[in-house]
Design brief:
Elements: H1 3-20, E1 25-34, H2 41-52, E2 61-67, E3 69-73, E4 79-82, E5 100-104, E6 108-116
Parallel strand pairs: 1-2
Antiparallel strand pairs: 1-6, 3-4, 3-5
Helix pairs in contact: 1-2
Bound molecules: zinc ion.
Zinc ion (ZN) binds at residues 73, 75-76, 78, 92, 94-95, 97.
């Protein structure tokens, strides 16, 4: 259940940003989450609703976009993207090597947010 700690830090950033910009209300938050993150969208929204109750961000809608994970091949240094471990094989797209390392894919960040000023 690490959605709670992730959502908590997202909420803190959103609230701080809204207050600093003298917003009246946060309408929506655009989040980007790595394709291989196990964070569940519905839990993030659920926790956000709990945390934001009675604050400037109450009722804000989270728009979650999954961004592909990026891997690098240790043999030929080629970078390639993966959106799912289930439907895609974890092998280099340029050579047949399986000696690959994840560069990104589990991170999350706030892309932008909409607020009423
Ligand atoms: Zn390769």
């Amino acid at each position: 259940m690490h959605e709670l700690s992730v959502t908590s830090s997202i909420f803190e950033i959103v609230e701080k940003h809204a207050v600093n910009n003298h917003a009246k209300r946060v309408v929506a938050v655009n989040l980007e989450i790595g394709a291989l993150s196990d964070l569940k969208n519905e839990w993030i929204q659920r926790y956000f609703d709990l945390l934001s109750a009675g604050t400037i961000a109450q009722g804000a809608r989270l728009m979650i976009t999954r961004v592909p994970a990026v891997f690098r091949c240790n043999q030929c240094q080629q970078l390639f993207e993966i959106t799912s471990f289930i439907t895609e094989e974890l092998v280099c797209r340029q050579c047949p090597s399986e000696d690959v390392v994840m560069i990104s894919g589990k991170e999350y960040h706030i892309k932008d947010m909409e607020a009423e000023i």
